[in-house]
Amino acid sequence: MNVSVVVGLQWGDEGKGKIIDYMSEDYEAAVRFNGGSNAGHTVTVNGKRVVFHLIPSAALRGKKLYIGPGVTIDPVQLIKEYNELGNVQLKVDPRATVVTPFDIWLDRKLEEMRGSAIGTTGRGIGTSFAGRMFRFSPRVCDIASGIVPDYGPMFTAFNYNPSEMKKWEEDSTLYLREHMADVPWELMQIYEKGGKILFESAQGTLLDPLYGTYPYVTSSNTIAPYVSIGAGFPFNRVDDIIGVMKAYQTRVGSGPFPTELSGSLADLIRQNGAEFGSTTGRPRRVGWLDLVSVKYATRLNQVNRIVVTKLDALSGLENLRVATRYNYQGKSSSDFTRSLYDKPEPEYVELDPIPDADWASISKRGYDSLPAQAKRLVELVEQELKVDVWLVSVGQERGMTVVA
Asked: What is the pTM of this model?
């Protein structure tokens, strides 16, 4: 399998960064193909925690790193991240959209103006993508060429003072020019020479603007087939699609959440799983695993392998539940799309609680040493999704990963 895609099967924050880092040892190149600096992919190695926002999560492995034209790039964040990582092998496609200071300002302004906040990260991602559709957002090649973004009447309409744009342009121009490359072309060169490529999605399937819980979604497509658009790489050359899911459910910001928990139980899972946004620091909403939505996401992405993360965060609870169906006005159903216009009541399977365990020791001994209760949850996931679980993550560290 020379070409793999890693996608999130929930509302993001599934632990994709750790899995990309874990897998990338066997790959020549890693590629981001969607989203922007609203992503927060965390990798922990030997106690050191690194959060990636734009640069692919394989950076610590010394791999070739690419950012495709489907990503919107904040040069300030990219320069900061690049400098913190050191001299990584990074190439950025010249056709990628650029986030300007105006995009960030407008993003926050629009969030203030809404009757009810969607809960964006305020990093200008949605406004930059929207500006691209309006045909006034700059691309990487525009900034690198010294072309000043022309927002015309937008500045006037929103009473924005563009003076801060000048310094931003000067800082961004030289850096972007140094890292520009035709990413789709380079990826095909690697592929045709037998090299292995790993594609990394940001956010999760349920945040996709078409297939997610709109309007409480992100601004670019998050599903695996978007590789063809976001990286210019033919989807029919993809061999392997890995879906990453937590052993429970979380989301950030507003929007529907059928299995959401509150009170002390939610607080306990949140603390056990360190469920605070890598990008925003916001506490994440927490709930029981919802296999109705995960099954929907698995089908959309054509997933052939599953990774279950943060299984350890469920240990020590007094009870454990997993939603396997929804009930709509007295009728049981596995139809996730109906939840987009009708409020479901989850139907739960009760599982035996997972006991406290020495997860570091278990990760060294392998899958068979997992508590029987934890293995039962993994078996239920396979039974419902009809896809094999490949990896189980039982801690933040790179090595705390077992092959199922």
From this structure: 0.94
